[in-house]
Specification:
By secondary structure, the protein is mainly alpha-helical. The strands form two sheets. A three-stranded parallel β-sheet has the order 1-2-3. α1 links the parallel β1 and β2. α3 crosses α12. The two termini are about 35 Å apart. The mean pLDDT is about 95. Bound molecules: tryptophan (TRP).
Length: about 325
């Protein structure tokens, strides 16, 4: 069982319910019996072009979102990556124990670089910085979505290579892939929910109720069935959202009833959508409430400064050992 947990999220400006159910809710749950460090990865964000003013605002905004979603800065360390510059120093050292061939096999790089005119070297070396994020704190558990498993595999290789070359120091971090990461786009239910596909594709955790209602009502349900499928992907997705929304409340009797209706061929999608909307808002309303209170309190800067201090104390210690092992002064 992992003892120290580390995970990171890019400051994309806003969380969507796929991020929440797929990752952040699990981050919050892990706090009860682990030592958790959560990081807003702004160094990673600049691997593609970003506006400096928007980036700073997005990092603050992500911190508000995370705390509102249950990340407790009293129990866990919450900080912005660039306030701990040791991440980049370790990334350089790790770059020297990472093979070009291994990096070239990263599928996220292939996907992200495919349609770009300018592909930065930073986008290519992104997984090295990710390994540095985790291992700077010698974390051994990393809650992530399934798409990060390959990056974690590389982090383990990097830890092994470092240990072989310079001496045993780093643990091999394991991905902790939670369930609930399967939420797909509302407008194209065959694709994973993503903010970058456009407004119609995702539901923001902080989005206003009227807008969420509209999106749920217009969710695509009639894509037809692929061979072997009994329920179209859009309907599967609505059930998924419903079940995730009611999971912590002991599950939903309504969900079971609606599934039975579906099996009997008498499910009204408008009814399903109304129930999905109500259940989802029961989860989101208190989160939205907490966020506006926190924002009004003006405390986020202070919280992040405190988090950075705690993170940096660990980072400094570990970097000092690494420097020594590598042969630096
Ligand atoms: N690459 C991760 C993502 O796209 C974000 C990330 C950066 C991360 N550093 C990390 C996740 C360290 C876990 C641990 O979601």
């Amino acid at each position: 069982m992992a003892t120290r947990i580390f995970s990171g999220i890019q400051p994309t400006g806003t969380l969507h319910i796929g991020n929440y159910f797929g990752a952040i809710r699990n981050w919050a749950a892990l706090q009860t019996d682990h030592d958790c460090i959560y990081c807003i990865v702004d160094y990673h964000a600049i691997t593609i072009e970003t506006d400096p003013v928007a980036l700073r605002a997005a990092s603050r905004s992500m911190a508000l979102d995370l705390i509102a979603c249950g990340i407790d800065p009293e129990r866990s360390i919450l900080f912005v990556q660039s306030s701990v510059p040791e991440h980049t120093e370790l990334a350089w050292i790790f770059g020297c124990v990472t093979s070009y061939g291994d990096l070239s096999r990263m599928t996220q790089f292939k996907d992200k670089s495919a349609d770009k005119k300018f592909v930065s070297a930073g986008l290519f070396t992104y997984p090295i910085l990710q390994a540095a994020d985790i291992l700077l704190y010698r974390a051994d558990g990393v809650p992530v979505g399934g798409d990060q498993v390959q990056h974690l595999e590389l982090s383990r290789r990097i830890a092994r290579r470092f240990n072989t070359r310079f001496g045993e120091f780093f643990p091999e971090p394991e991905p902790l892939v939670g369930k609930g990461a399967r939420i797909t786009s509302l407008a194209d239910p065959t694709a994973k929910m993503s903010k970058s596909d456009g407004e119609a594709h995702y539901i923001g955790v902080m989005e206003d109720e009227g807008s969420i209602r509209k999106k749920v009502r217009s969710a695509v349900t009639d894509t037809g069935l692929a061979p072997g499928e009994t329920m179209s992907p859009g309907v599967v997705n609505l059930f998924e959202i419903l079940e995730l929304s009611t999971e912590l409340a002991g599950g939903s009797a309504v969900a079971a009833e609606l599934r039975a209706d579906f099996a009997a061929g008498k499910l009204m999608y408008s009814r399903l959508k109304d129930v999905v909307f109500d259940s989802l808002m029961n989860v989101l309303r208190p989160i939205q409430q907490r966020r506006s209170e926190l924002e009004a309190s003006g405390k986020v800067e202070e919280i992040l400064a405190h988090g950075a201090e705690k993170a940096r104390a660990i980072a400094r210690d570990n970097i000092a050992s690494v420097r020594e092992m590598v042969g630096f002064d």
